[in-house]
Amino acid sequence: MVLFGLVASQQVLSTLGRLQDARLREYARLHLDGLAVALGPFVLHKDVWEVYDTLDRARANASGERILFTVVADERGRVLAATDPLRAPVDSAAAVYSDNSVPVDEVTSSKGTKVVRVAEPLSVQGREVGQIMTELDVTDLVDQRRTATLALLAGNALATLILVVAGYAVVARMLKPVELLARHMGESGGAPQPIPEDSIPRSESPLSKLLWNFNEMAGAIDARAEAERRLAERERFVSLGRLSSSLAHEINNPLGGLLNATDTIRTYSERPDVVRKSADLLDRGLRHLSEVSRAILEENRLDRSGQPLSQTDFDDLRLLFEPETQRCRLELGWTVDAGDETLAGFPSAAVRQIALNLLLNAASAAPTGGKVALSVQSRDDGLMLEVIDDGPGLSETARSRLLSPDPVAPGGGVGLRLVRDLVAGMGGAITYDRSTGRTEIAVSLPREEKTQC
């Protein structure tokens, strides 16, 4: 507003100055042209007295007090006559009185001086016979400009002050809803409280809509907090169900093989080699069940500091899984290309759980007469387990359970999610590939770095 006032004031003063200068030049030209017509013959004949008389009559007829002093000089630059003979004696040098003089077309009162000198040549029939020099009083014009400047400054200051006060009042009124919103947000303490409806302006302004939106947001946050509380409570029940399901799932599967082993002992009790082999299988299976039970009691987290993995574990898995393939009439492929030295760097229970769950899932997906294969290979950076089947592949929900860390909807088996949790806990990775009618799930387990004490 101040800048706008300054620009506007400058425009007003410029316009006033142009009008004053135009009037001053018009006045000076009329005065000098009239003197030139009257004085021309007398200056040509050097008639000093007539020149004096003409100057006196011109000053007497001039309106106002604007003409202060006039000097008439001949072609030699000597004074012929002046309105003040004492100041400009006859035959004195006229150049003294023409200092700082300007032509009529360049006369201006904007320089701030109260006296302006104007000089114009005096010609008679195209012949220059002398020069006329006049001092004009422009005090009134300078005073007018000064008065206009002060009036503009005062008016601009008053207008600016009024606009500032009015603008402050308007903005303060506009910001009241924002202050109300800021106060409620600052006092919320992390839980926004709705603004009382009687405090919200009854209008369709954007600020009123903002306050209503804040109330809706506060209600949505409360609803979300309640939903999260209910979800957390539900998740506790889901976890409990998952724990029970895992316990039943992981204990029930090996029991079939163990019962087969006890049946074998009863049937071939007279053959010590068969009894010994079945007893070893029973011992390993029972130890495995003990590890699973202890791990589930420890918040469903398998003990990774237990027995190391070995080729015997995969032999046991094959013995436990073969009855399932025979029941479904599946062709089983089994390749373990890793020695005990390599396998000993991985926990037995976790790897067996990963392999068993993937094999059971592949067996349930493969069609009757289909094929299921397990491949275990040693890599420089760890161990690679691959389970392949010729089934239709995993559904979107099943892939989410196996590959995504996002929460899953309740329902469905826990085997794939258990595999994902075990692999993630060991720092491994799972890849899923479906091509040429085959489903391949690959689990990459990194080798654990052993620190020496």
TrEMBL record:
Residues 246-449 form the Histidine kinase domain. SUPFAM superfamilies: ATPase domain of HSP90 chaperone/DNA topoisomerase II/histidine kinase, Homodimeric domain of signal transducing histidine kinase. It comes from Tropicimonas aquimaris. Its EC number is 2.7.13.3. The chain crosses the membrane at residues 150-175. GO terms for molecular function: kinase activity. SMART domains: HATPase_c, HisKA. The keyword Transferase applies. Keywords: Kinase, Membrane, Phosphoprotein, Transferase, Transmembrane, Transmembrane helix. InterPro entries: HATPase_C_sf, HATPase_dom, His_kinase_dom, HisK_dim/P_dom, HisK_dim/P_sf, Sig_transdc_His_kin-like_C, TCS_sensor_his_kinase. This is histidine kinase. PANTHER family: SENSOR HISTIDINE KINASE TRCS, SENSOR HISTIDINE KINASE YKOH. It catalyses: ATP + protein L-histidine = ADP + protein N-phospho-L-histidine.
